[in-house]
Amino acid sequence: MRGMIMTVRIGQQHKFRAMLLACFVLLPIQRVCGDESPAVDAAMALERAVVNAIAAAERSVVAIARFRTDDPARPGLDDWTVQGWPGGVIGPMPDLADRVQVPDEFAAGVVIDRGGYILTNFHVLGDPDKNRYVVMAGRRPLEAVQVLTVNQVQAGDPWTDLAVIKVDADDLEPITFGDADRLRKGQFVISLGNPYNIARDGEVSASWGIISNLGRRIPRDDTASGGAPRERLYHYGGLIQTDAKLNMGTSGGALINLSGEMIGLTTAMASLEGFEKSLGFAIPVDDSFRATVETLKSGRKAEFGFLGVEPRDLSAAMRRGGRQGVELARVVPATPAAQAGLRPGDIITRVNDVPLYDSLDMMCQLGKLAAGSTVRLAVQRGADPTQRGRLFLTSVNLSKKHIPLADRAYSIVPDPKWRGMGVDYATAVVPPTQLQQLLQIDRAGNALGVSQVQPESVAWQAGVRPGSLLTHVNGQRVTTPDQFFETVEALEGDVKLRLVTGELTIPAP
């Protein structure tokens, strides 16, 4: 969140912007001389578009301050009290020279609903159990800034770096979402955020630039404590890169187009070793983004799809022959890929009509799809460096991805349990390295996994343990977690569960 952002230096781009600046500088002189040149008119039209876009969106972007509750220098934070910043009270800004009132971290957020729902980055919030948050909303004429304490963290997802919080307010202006799928390199964009916490007065700052590129990847950080990687979806690609100035504190802000529509959520990434600054990125507003945001807004954890393949890049000989796509090095038995008939050596050329050029492209496209969704694949079979093979289309129902992250997802809606046990897709419970061996026992590939068991519960006492795989409830096949819970909730008394290792009877509590 405190990372800085580097403007990508592209020669032609800066020449154009220098010419554009010259138009603005010369504008007063030309007006005096009565010169209404087309260049000046174009510059004025662009200026009006920028001003109008900012006016349309700026009241939907807020400043967020984060305070650690375990800081002994700040008594009272554990009961949601920030000295000088009373929740929901309209009044003058506190004296930020006071150590007690200076936040540990600061960033931005975007209003997505009049009910007080605000979208930001997962990394902005940190651990909700150890932090409290304050939101500074936009001022109105003759009014002081509206300062709101966050009364609820709805949900947060480390895989997509998205989180939703809620404040007690019903007069915030939600932003309008655009469509990032229609973006092109070179389009003008505007960023709205809270650089260096300057927007604590309720007025967010704006900067502008162009879209430098699309589908960008960030370097993966495997240095997290505890051995679990800080893996994100965007290590595989998908980010908007912009040269709009994004300083420290702009994470969670809005990247908007000239119509005032949000087409990306700005995110500050750590600088690369050897570079003076880091790059400017935004998470694109596309269908998967909207679906994830709606899930988090509802207070539920986001779940992502799993296919069950090991992809690899095409050989140099295939690429020289004009081939494009990703080869399947391995298909894990009894997974959705195997059930759909995919084989090692198959080449996937498209995922949901999006062309693939390397294995990271495939991981990115699959990684943002929801668990239980259906994906369309374009497949070439029987190909070699000289022949393209047979092309066919197939649809695959995805299970759920196992994501071993250093940062945990959180939500206000608890994971469902029955008689002390939780159930999920087997592919989400068992690490991929063990999945092939375990699922070979169930050739149908629809086993569910026991995600957790409360000690001393009736399920625990019956012998159910985390990691167990189950297939039937009272002789009825269950293939999804929702189906399992719908089935067992309708039953009373003893219930028989068929595990891949045998049958157990779960007594009524």
Describe this structure in words.
This protein has 509 residues and is of the alpha+beta class. It has three domains: 1-299, Thrombin, subunit H, CATH 2.40.10; 308-397, PDZ domain (Pdz3 Domain), CATH 2.30.42; 415-506, PDZ domain (Pdz3 Domain, Roll). The protein has eleven helices and 29 strands. It has a six-stranded antiparallel β-barrel with strand order 9-10-11-14-13-12. A hairpin with an 8-residue loop joins β20 and β21. α1 (11-32) packs across α2 (38-57). Residues 1-16, 24-33, 75-101, 140-144 and 270-276 have low confidence and may be disordered.
* Average pLDDT for all residues: 81
CATH topology of the largest domain, which one? Thrombin, subunit H
Model regions low in confidence, pLDDT < 50 over at least 5 residues? 1-16, 24-33, 75-101, 140-144, 270-276
Structural class category: alpha+beta
The percentage of residues in β strands lies in 25-35%
